[in-house]
Amino acid sequence: MGNVRRVPTSTIEPPADAEAPRRHPKAPGPGERTREHHSQCRGCADVPGSLRIRSWVEDDGVSVRSRFDVLDEHQGGPGLLHGGLLMTAFDDALGTAHTQVVRAAVTARMETDFRRPVPVGTTLWLRSRVDAVVGRKVYTSGVAYLGELDGEVAGTARALFVKVGAEHFLKHSRPEDLEALGASREVIEAARAAP
Ligand SMILES: CCCCC/C=C\C/C=C\C/C=C\C/C=C\CCCC(=O)SCCNC(=O)CCNC(=O)[C@H](O)C(C)(C)COP(=O)(O)OP(=O)(O)OC[C@H]1O[C@@H](n2cnc3c(N)ncnc32)[C@H](O)[C@@H]1OP(=O)(O)O
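Above are the sequence and the 3IX SMILES. Below is the predicted complex in structure-token form.
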């Protein structure tokens, strides 16, 4: 292991004095379904290979509840949910909570505690919230419950999202995917040429 470079990691503890997050005026309101991240999102869009996670806004307008039906195709151990797919579910649900507060942000760091095995056939319910927004940093946390909201805890997660602008996608996404979203070749090339 001597040749493995150690990459420094950093804390994602939200600062204690941060202001309470407020709902973005264009975000859906309490009780409404949230929007999918985009039409091909493998977390929440209705496409093959997606976890098909569905989320709704809670009464506070900021938190969300999400539903994930665990199927055969989500197995890791025999008849049990793959841990990485629980992380995907958290990434999607926490990444949906942040869209209630900020326009676009991407996951920078996430940590997950796996507390109970999740059998195939279970419906997982997740509660996710934004704890604080400080500059570009969006601190989120969530809980996944077995079978019913506030039931037995299957896992918990925290994630730091970092706000990005359209240039993040213009620079890094495949050009054909950007063109499908309406971006012109000139705009894409200009974003890629920028420092
Ligand atoms: C027509 C045009 C179309 C445009 C497209 C429009 C819309 C697209 C539609 C929807 C998609 C929107 C969102 C998707 C959201 C959710 C989907 C589920 C979630 C995901 O699937 S998402 C994919 C996985 N995700 C990534 O693909 C990120 C890869 N990554 C990066 O792209 C960079 O790494 C980035 C941007 C994160 C930061 O880079 P950067 O250069 O902008 O900023 P910088 O490094 O300065 O960080 C700023 C401050 O965050 C702190 N910080 C950074 N990283 C940290 C860490 N790991 N731990 C602790 N602190 C950290 C720094 O310490 C600093 O803090 P401080 O200011 O206090 O010093």
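The mean pLDDT is 94.
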